[in-house]
Structure formats: C-alpha cells, structure tokens
Amino acid sequence: MASTTAFLKGQAAIVTGGGSGINFSFVKLLVESGVNVLIADIALYPSTKTWLESHNPDETGSRVEYLQTDVRDWSQLERTFDVCIAQFGKCPDIVVPGAGVFDLPKNAFWEDVDKDGHYNLLDVNLVHPIKMTRLAIKHMLEAKKAKGDKPGICGTIVHVSSIAAQTPALLIPLYSASKSGVNSFVRSMANLQDVCGIRVVGVAPGMTSTPLMVDDPVTLSLFDPERDTLLPPEELARAMLSLVVDTDKYAAGTILEVCDTEGRWREVSNLNDPGPQGPGSTISGGKDIAYGIFKTLGVGPKI
Ligand SMILES: NC(=O)c1ccc[n+]([C@@H]2O[C@H](COP(=O)([O-])OP(=O)(O)OC[C@H]3O[C@@H](n4cnc5c(N)ncnc54)[C@H](O)[C@@H]3O)[C@@H](O)[C@H]2O)c1
C-alpha cells in the first residue's frame, strides 16, 4: 500500500452516495491513502455519521467533509465541485458518482410509481452519473489547463455499475436498464484518456452486504443463504482503488466485476462475455416477488 499512498497523498475526491455501503468503504480506503474526501449524499447512514464525528484528520492526514446533496438536482451536483475546491483547495482528482437505489421494495415499474414523465431510479442510477461525469470533465480540464496542460492522467471517474447489467430480470427492469446504461456510458468514454488524460472506469459489484441489500426484508429475500454469497463492501472498495492506481493493468473504459474476494476480479468484455462468475454472482430468491408481479399482470402463478 506504500506506493499507492504515495500516488494518492494530497489528492481530492468527491464520492456521491458515500454516506453508506460500498461507497463509504471506498471513502475510508481513500482517507487511509491520504486523500481528502467530500461525501455528497442525501443522508448519512448512522454508523457513517459516528465514524465521521470520530474521524481525526491529524491522525489520518486526510480531511473528510459531508455535503448534503440530492444527486437528482444539477445545481446540487455543481455545488459539490465548488465545495471541494473551497474546502481542499483543488479540483477533485477522483470522482465517484456512486449513489444508487434499487427497484425493491417499491417496484416503480410494476407498481406504476413515478407517472410524471421520469423514473426516480433512472434519475439517480443513470442520469446522475452521466451529469456528474460531464461536470467532472469540465472541472478536471480547467484544472489541467491552469497547471500548464501537462501530459498524463489528470483525473479519474469511477462509476458503480452492477452485475445486473448482464443479468436483466423481470423483477428489477429499471435497475438492470440503468446499470447497462452505465456500462455503455463508461465504455463510450474510454477514449477520453488518450484525448485529454481523463480516465473513466467502472466497477460491477455482485451481491454485496450493504444497507441497500440487507436493511429491507423484501430485497433481502432475493438472497438465499443456502446458495448465495453476500460480498463484503471492503472488497469492492479495494477493486475501486485498484481501478484508480493500477493504470497499466486496467485500461480506461474497463468494467471490473467483483463477485469474489481476495482480488479475484474479472474484466467484463464488451462482446462475447461469459457473464458474471464467482460466488457473489447468484441470486436464488425472489420467487414470491415474481408471483406478485404475475398477479399484477393477471397471468398464471407459474414461473
Ligand atoms: N449492494 C449490492 O449488492 C450492490 C450490487 C451491485 C451494485 N450496487 C451499487 O452500489 C452502489 C452503492 O450501493 P450500496 O449497495 O452501497 O447501497 P447503500 O444504500 O448502502 O448506498 C447508497 C447510497 O446512495 C445514496 N442515495 C440514494 N439516493 C440518493 C439521492 N437522490 N441523492 C444522494 N444520495 C442518494 C443513499 O443515501 C446511500 O447512502 C449503488 O450504485 C448500487 O446500485 C450495489
């Protein structure tokens, strides 16, 4: 980790959704590596609040600030960059548009929620990462110019996709669509590294033990403890850090699947990919939810 810390020390990061789960684990890893971090989240999970209150920048050498942010709002996304610059004296070197929500327990598609022309899930999971990337590119290029337009990497944007991009399902149609969109978007940005030094990459977590997955009993029912594995969020954080620092190993545009522990990660190919692999890739529950959907459709109970 010594060389990683040397690489990252003094950098600044904005992490949306950093108040909980996978993104919070990444926040902690960044802080341990000497990065000043702005958490932009609509709320902090109670244990994150406790951690933040006890965090001592003199011990870690890094600062952490929290800005209450609704990622669906463009002006609030813009503000995260202003606050990062004001607090840490620099444009972010790392941006993670990680905030996300899930179709369950309230299934916006099947239960006809969000009838006013847009789906909340798509606003959070797909539109916000796209907007955040646009803002990050603008700010990173301004900072690069101000420093004399030197060659090399001037910023990294780490998206948080999902294996659901490759395992679309009737139970989670909006979620699967949003994460497929994220994969496509990340790949669309691959050439940006050669063009102007901005690296856009993504991680695709398998089933991970976070509040999104375990706090709601309906969502948790997707997980069959006899057959499925919930991954620790710290494994995801390590993969995200590797995407930032291992620039020779992972090309821009990489989607790195994490369905296993101890660094057994897999790059997802754009074409002819075998699909998610490893213990965290299976979801064996959810049959009752499927029956509920069939009932809504007025069709038979068989799957
Ligand atoms: N947990 C899993 O199994 C899993 C699997 C694949 C992908 N993911 C993805 O990982 C990312 C993190 O999820 P997690 O599992 O850690 O869940 P989580 O619920 O612990 O974290 C999600 C965070 O997003 C924030 N958020 C939601 N809506 C917001 C809004 N409008 N504005 C600002 N912040 C908002 C929440 O407050 C929360 O802190 C998400 O993008 C999720 O889709 C999770």
From TrEMBL:
InterPro entries: NAD(P)-bd_dom_sf, Sc_DH/Rdtase_CS, SDR_fam
GO cellular component, one term: cytoplasm
Coiled-coil residue windows: none
GO MF annotation list: oxidoreductase activity, acting on the CH-OH group of donors, NAD or NADP as acceptor
Keyword Kinase found: no
Keyword entries, A-Z: NADP, Oxidoreductase
Keyword match Hydrolase: no
Pfam family, one: adh_short
Protein family per UniProt: Belongs to the short-chain dehydrogenases/reductases (SDR) family.
The protein's name: Uncharacterized protein
Organism for this UniProt entry: Penicillium angulare
